Every structure is written in C-alpha cells, then in structure tokens.
Amino acid sequence: MNPKNTIMPDTNSEADTVSMTTEGDGGEEDIPDLVPIEEQSRDEYFASYEDVEIHRLMVNDVPRTTAYRDAIYKNKHLFKDKIVMDVGAGTGILSLFMASAGAKKVYAVEASGMAQVIQQVARDNGFSDIIQVFHKRVEDIILPEEEKVDVIVSEWMGFYLLHESMLNSIIIARDTFLSDEGTVFPSEARIYAAPCSLKSLYSEQINFWDNVYGFNMNSVKQYALRSKMIKPEVCLVPEDDLLANPTCIKTFNLRWITEEELRLFTETTFIAIARAGNYQGLCLWFECDFDGRDYDEEGKEFGTVVTLSTAPSSPSTHWKQTVVVLGYISEPESAPSHNNDSQEIELTCNEGHPAPHSQDEGHSEACGNTSNINNGSDEGKQKSNEQNQTVETSNVEYGIYKDYKVDVDEVVGWKIALCQSDDNVRHYTMTVEMLDPEVEEHPMPCQCPMPRCLIISKMIEKEDMEADDDIIDCT
Ligand SMILES: C[S@@+](CC[C@H](N)C(=O)[O-])C[C@H]1O[C@@H](n2cnc3c(N)ncnc32)[C@H](O)[C@@H]1O
Ligand SMILES: [Zn+2]
C-alpha cells in the first residue's frame, strides 16, 4: 500500500506524524517524521481500513463525498485561515477539501496504514506545508503546545448511523482539541424509521420457496424468513415500499452530545399508515446536516446548511438503508395476531469477533452473508462491515408466519432500543419490539391519529399559541 521508496520511518523522532521524502514538487522539505502506529492500535477494525478498495467505494459514493465537499466549499468562512482537524482521514480527501478552502493547517489523523499515503497525496496536490498527518488513533495524539482547532470534520457514520460507533472518537477529539467557538462537521445527525413492505426481498428470497420443482418447501420458507428476522438487512428500499411518513427517532447535536448519551437510547413510536400494504419491516436510515450559517455585524445571514441524506427518497449511498425484517407468528388454525405477538429482535454488531453459532442458546451467527447486500460498488465496504456483524435473537419461535396487511390510517407502533456494550463501545445491541397501539401507552405528544393523542396534540398546540400571544414584542 505504501508508495514505493517514499516513506521514511524515523523511529527516533518524538513526533506523532508521518514523513515522506519526495521526488515531486518541492524537493527536501522540513516535514515531520514517521513514527509507526503502536501495535495495540493495529486491531482488526483499522486493518479493515487498509483495504484501499473500501476507500475507493467511499470516495466514489457521490452523494456522500459531494455533501462533504459542498459543506466545506459553501462555508469557506469556517475554513479560511483556520486550523482544522480531519478525524479518520482515510485517503485524505476531506483534508484536501479543507486545504483547498483555505485552511492554514489541516491535521489529518488516521490510525490505519492509509495514513502513510496521505502526506504524499498532500504533496502531490501542493498542500505539503498545510496538511500534517498523524498516524495514530485520535485518542492518542498530542498537538503542539496543546493547540486548539477551529473545526473538526469527520466521516464517522456507519450503517443505521451507529454501527462502527466511531462517534465516541469524535466526541473525545472534540472535547480535547476543539476551541470553545469551534464547529463540528457534520453538526447534527438524525436516525429515521418507517414501516415498510419488502416486496423484492420477499419475492426473491422468501416466496421463492413456495413452489420448488412442484415440491412443498414451506419449511424452508419459514427457515428463510426466520433467518432474515434475526439480522439486519442492509439493502435499498424503494420509496414506494414505505408505508408511512418517516419519523425521526433520534437527533444527535454533534457539538454537545456526550459519550454517556450514546450508551442507550429508546424511542417508542406510534404512527398512522399512509400507504396500504404488507407490513414486513422497519426501515432505518440517517441524515446529517452541516450547518455553517452565521450572522455578520448587521445581522445578515451567511453560510449555508448542507444535508447528506441516506433516505430511500434520496440518491442511494453505500449505506443504503437498514431493515429489521418483521414476522408475525401465529398458531396453526388461528388468525394472525400481530398485536399479541410482539416480536423482539436483537441485532448485535460486534466488531471483529463473530459470535459462535449456537442454536441451543437461541443465538445464531450471521456474518459474512452478503447475498442481500451485494449491490454493485458497495460490496467491499459492506463485506468488511457485515463480516464483523453478529446477531442474536430472542423470543422468536418457530410458527406459522402470516402476512400483516395494513390499511391507510391504521396505527402501528414499535419500540426501538440501541444499547452500547460497556466493554466495547463499537458493540451495539438493537432491540425492536412491536407494540399494540390499543394496549400500550403512547408517548406525549404522539403523532398518531388515535383520539386520545389527537386531543392531547390539539391541547399542546393551543397552549403553544397562547404562549406565543403572551410574548410582548419589544422591537
Ligand atoms: C469512514 S472512513 C472515512 C475516510 C475519509 N475521511 C473519507 O471521507 O473518505 C473512517 C476512517 O477513520 C479511521 N478511524 C476510525 N477511528 C479512528 C480513530 N479513533 N482515530 C483515527 N482514525 C480513525 C479509519 O481507519 C478510517 O480510515
Ligand atoms: Zn398515539
């Protein structure tokens, strides 16, 4: 991966940075020396980022990379003559954007071996004196004279936002290196959810077993569905398959969020169906805002907000969407009773260490199965992440799986919980529980159109309007 004859390790140096000799633009230059990354940091996670193909897939993800470019170029006031940090710089693409936007210093921090090419990339683009590479985990670097940075930019997002959980590292970098007035890009991240049908997944992978060369393979069909129910599907969900308007289940303000807030969150949602169909899954995705707006002395706004969306309605990205496949189990002869059979699925993303397969304990391994996510150019990154993903399930029993058809205005509900492991912050368990809207308590306020929720929403609306009327205009 290293460019031939260009990297000159200097283990005598105390500096944290990467140095390269050059036969390129400027000849000998006074640039920092390479200190190899500590062995303990070379874990499997960073090793996976030494596959340059993963970086090609990310850089080639046009909505992703142009969102960062636009956010930086359309908010140059944040970067011009500023000291900035690129956390997890990869190939250095975001560092190049920031240097091009006029940053006076870019600290490019990269723990994987990719760090070794960034300095040459900087040199090849005339930024060798601007971009300074740290080949370390951001948690381990020390800036000269405890310098603070004006902006931290990072692409830390994983599937359904939190898979990989690089966000903890961003929070540590922010609390250590960002100046009081500093900016974090992206500035806000939101997780969305919507009930969905999964027409192509069902027709291609589940209903396929209905008739196999004239034989009844219904048992294989049940097995296929069950295996889908116990792991998240990373796939593209057509917008038409969404059965309700998306609901935001979590907002992260990246300037202020704490590591504590990443440990656990739960959200209960009740929502009215907007499109009749088979309710087969819960579709999750995320959006990020880069808010660079500010005001000049005359109160005039400048800068802009750029949004990176991974919604089914947006151009597809390598994150696609994440789907929790639902199944409705009922005893033979009885009607499907989704309301009584609330289903709980645990999806555990366990970096680097697939759990042992154990049917007896109700656990199953779902690593390396990329059949559902092998859509074109995304495969490499998907593979790398999927192989690290183990899945546990509980309370899912064999039974007869029924369609659950929903009609417009029908209310459906679920509770989703994301819980970070105490031992490993990259390890999340997602629990999805289907809720009976007639029985379970609704949040307050609730967006669903059931009479009690409608009355409460109207009352809140009225109180808000009265409060607005009470505000005295002093202008
Ligand atoms: C999703 S990639 C983004 C790469 C690049 N910024 C881009 O936009 O193409 C995340 C990168 O962050 C690096 N990384 C993750 N955690 C890190 C940490 N704690 N310190 C330094 N680098 C880290 C990974 O090795 C990987 O190269
Ligand atoms: Zn409600």
Automatic annotation (TrEMBL):
Residues of the signal peptide: none
Top-level EC class: transferase
GO biological process, one term: methylation
Gene3D superfamilies on file: Hnrnp arginine n-methyltransferase1, Vaccinia Virus protein VP39
GO cellular component: nucleus
Compositional bias segments (type: Polar residues): 1-22, 367-377
Region annotation Disordered: where it falls in the sequence: 1-31, 348-391
EC number, as in UniProt: 2.1.1.319
Known catalytic reactions: L-arginyl-[protein] + S-adenosyl-L-methionine = N(omega)-methyl-L-arginyl-[protein] + S-adenosyl-L-homocysteine + H(+)
PANTHER family: ARGININE METHYLTRANSFERASE 8 (PTHR11006:SF122), PROTEIN ARGININE N-METHYLTRANSFERASE (PTHR11006)
Name listed for the protein in its UniProt record: type I protein arginine methyltransferase
